[in-house]
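Technical note accompanying the year-one report. For the benefit of new consortium partners, we illustrate the data format agreed upon in the data management plan: each record pairs a sequence with a structure-token string. No post-processing was applied to the example shown here.
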Amino acid sequence: MISEAERGTKSPTIAVLSALAEALEVPLSRLVAEEASAETMQVIRAADRRRLVDPSGVARETLAPTTEAHGLEFVRFVLPVGTDGGDFAPHRTGTAERIYVERGRVEIRNGGDRVVLGAGDSVFFFADRPHGTRNVGNDEAVLYLVIDPPR
């Protein structure tokens, strides 16, 4: 898959890219954007944000620079009507995810646990089990995620 993606013959899903990042023990943002320096302020202008869109239309945008030292990611995730964001591989033990739903209705999965959230709802969980999101509403869903690995 990596070779095919590099040659441009396949477009991996965001879930596949996430699994690759986990295997490499780096934040997904690091695979698609430059790393921020801990010594200076880093600005990402709206027009310069890196946006990944997988074949299903699911989009992932990194909203803030990620540093190697912390690995914290701040992400905007958009799920078109009827789409599933895929199954994400477990993160390292102790990695926490916080998700806020700006609009839409989504099912959040973490291992065998499932919860449906609507606009304004949020959830916290340790993401060291397979996890994912699915749009269960009639409109596009927009989520904000903070992925916080252990230090």
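Partners are asked to follow this layout when depositing records. The domain at 2-148 is CATH 2.60.120.10 (Jelly Rolls).
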